[in-house]
Amino acid sequence: MDAFDDLMLGYALKKLTDVFEEVMENSKSTSSDKTTGVLDSSQTKTAKRLPVWLGRVRVNTPYQVTHVLIDQMHASRKLNRDQRFAAQVALLEALVEEGLAMHVASYSVAIVEKRLKCFLDR
Protein backbone atom coordinates (compact mmCIF):
# COMPACT_ATOMS: atom_id res chain seq x y z
CA MET A 1 0.00 0.00 0.00
CA ASP A 2 1.49 3.34 -0.98
CA ALA A 3 1.45 6.45 1.19
CA PHE A 4 -1.54 8.02 -0.59
CA ASP A 5 -3.68 4.89 -0.16
CA ASP A 6 -2.65 4.70 3.50
CA LEU A 7 -3.60 8.35 3.98
CA MET A 8 -6.97 7.90 2.26
CA LEU A 9 -7.76 4.79 4.31
CA GLY A 10 -6.88 6.66 7.49
CA TYR A 11 -9.13 9.54 6.46
CA ALA A 12 -12.03 7.21 5.64
CA LEU A 13 -11.69 5.43 9.00
CA LYS A 14 -11.52 8.78 10.78
CA LYS A 15 -14.74 9.89 9.10
CA LEU A 16 -16.48 6.60 9.87
CA THR A 17 -15.33 6.93 13.48
CA ASP A 18 -16.81 10.43 13.54
CA VAL A 19 -20.16 8.94 12.49
CA PHE A 20 -20.02 6.26 15.17
CA GLU A 21 -18.98 8.81 17.78
CA GLU A 22 -21.87 11.11 16.82
CA VAL A 23 -24.37 8.26 16.97
CA MET A 24 -23.10 7.21 20.40
CA GLU A 25 -23.22 10.81 21.63
CA ASN A 26 -26.75 11.35 20.30
CA SER A 27 -27.99 8.15 21.86
CA LYS A 28 -26.73 9.28 25.28
CA SER A 29 -28.04 12.83 25.24
CA THR A 30 -31.57 14.12 25.13
CA SER A 31 -31.72 16.84 22.51
CA SER A 32 -34.18 19.65 22.10
CA ASP A 33 -36.17 19.85 18.88
CA LYS A 34 -33.96 22.65 17.55
CA THR A 35 -30.78 20.66 18.07
CA THR A 36 -32.32 17.58 16.53
CA GLY A 37 -33.15 19.54 13.39
CA VAL A 38 -29.55 20.64 13.05
CA LEU A 39 -28.29 17.13 13.63
CA ASP A 40 -30.70 15.73 11.04
CA SER A 41 -29.26 18.16 8.50
CA SER A 42 -25.67 17.17 9.25
CA GLN A 43 -26.61 13.49 9.37
CA THR A 44 -28.09 13.77 5.88
CA LYS A 45 -24.79 15.17 4.58
CA THR A 46 -22.90 12.41 6.38
CA ALA A 47 -25.20 9.71 5.03
CA LYS A 48 -24.43 10.84 1.48
CA ARG A 49 -20.69 10.44 2.10
CA LEU A 50 -20.88 7.03 3.83
CA PRO A 51 -20.73 5.02 0.57
CA VAL A 52 -17.60 6.93 -0.45
CA TRP A 53 -15.83 6.19 2.85
CA LEU A 54 -16.94 2.56 2.85
CA GLY A 55 -15.76 2.24 -0.74
CA ARG A 56 -12.33 3.46 0.31
CA VAL A 57 -12.29 0.85 3.07
CA ARG A 58 -13.40 -1.93 0.71
CA VAL A 59 -10.46 -1.49 -1.67
CA ASN A 60 -8.04 -2.38 1.13
CA THR A 61 -7.35 -5.75 2.68
CA PRO A 62 -8.88 -6.56 6.08
CA TYR A 63 -5.33 -6.61 7.46
CA GLN A 64 -4.64 -3.05 6.24
CA VAL A 65 -7.97 -1.76 7.58
CA THR A 66 -7.37 -3.35 10.97
CA HIS A 67 -3.79 -2.10 11.12
CA VAL A 68 -4.69 1.53 10.42
CA LEU A 69 -7.72 1.51 12.72
CA ILE A 70 -5.73 -0.01 15.59
CA ASP A 71 -3.08 2.70 15.11
CA GLN A 72 -5.85 5.29 15.41
CA MET A 73 -7.19 3.53 18.49
CA HIS A 74 -3.76 3.73 20.14
CA ALA A 75 -3.71 7.47 19.45
CA SER A 76 -7.16 7.89 21.02
CA ARG A 77 -6.03 5.99 24.10
CA LYS A 78 -2.89 8.14 24.45
CA LEU A 79 -5.00 11.29 24.24
CA ASN A 80 -7.52 9.92 26.78
CA ARG A 81 -10.36 10.25 24.27
CA ASP A 82 -12.48 7.50 25.78
CA GLN A 83 -15.62 8.25 23.80
CA ARG A 84 -13.68 8.19 20.53
CA PHE A 85 -12.00 4.94 21.53
CA ALA A 86 -15.40 3.40 22.27
CA ALA A 87 -16.63 4.54 18.84
CA GLN A 88 -13.55 2.97 17.22
CA VAL A 89 -14.20 -0.31 19.03
CA ALA A 90 -17.78 -0.27 17.74
CA LEU A 91 -16.54 0.56 14.23
CA LEU A 92 -13.99 -2.26 14.33
CA GLU A 93 -16.70 -4.72 15.41
CA ALA A 94 -18.96 -3.56 12.55
CA LEU A 95 -16.15 -3.83 10.01
CA VAL A 96 -15.24 -7.32 11.25
CA GLU A 97 -18.87 -8.35 10.97
CA GLU A 98 -18.92 -7.12 7.35
CA GLY A 99 -15.64 -8.88 6.55
CA LEU A 100 -13.81 -5.60 5.98
CA ALA A 101 -11.47 -5.91 8.99
CA MET A 102 -9.84 -8.71 10.94
CA HIS A 103 -10.85 -9.84 14.40
CA VAL A 104 -8.25 -8.63 16.92
CA ALA A 105 -7.14 -12.20 17.72
CA SER A 106 -6.59 -13.00 14.03
CA TYR A 107 -4.78 -9.71 13.54
CA SER A 108 -2.49 -10.47 16.49
CA VAL A 109 -1.62 -13.86 15.00
CA ALA A 110 -0.88 -12.22 11.64
CA ILE A 111 1.44 -9.69 13.32
CA VAL A 112 3.34 -12.42 15.16
CA GLU A 113 3.65 -14.50 11.97
CA LYS A 114 4.93 -11.47 10.08
CA ARG A 115 7.57 -10.78 12.74
CA LEU A 116 8.63 -14.43 12.90
CA LYS A 117 8.90 -14.57 9.12
CA CYS A 118 11.31 -11.64 9.30
CA PHE A 119 13.62 -13.71 11.53
CA LEU A 120 13.26 -16.87 9.43
CA ASP A 121 14.12 -15.05 6.20
CA ARG A 122 17.56 -14.10 7.52
Oligomer: single chain
Specify the overall morphology: globular
Number of discrete domains: 1
First-residue to last-residue Cα separation? 24 Å
Element-level helix/strand string: HHHHH
Radius of gyration: 17 Å
Secondary structure category: mainly alpha
DSSP strand count: 0
Structure explained in plain terms:
The chain is mainly α and 122 residues long. It contains five helices and no strands. It has one domain (3-120). Helix 1 (3-28) runs antiparallel to helix 2, helix 1 crosses helix 3 and helix 3 (62-78) runs antiparallel to helix 4.
Task: Write the SSE topology.
Blueprint lengths: L2 H26 L4 H26 L3 H17 L3 H16 L6 H17 L2
Helix pairs in contact: 1-2, 1-3, 1-4, 3-4
Briefly, what is this?
This protein is an all-alpha fold and 122 residues long. 84% of the residues lie in helices and 0% in strands.
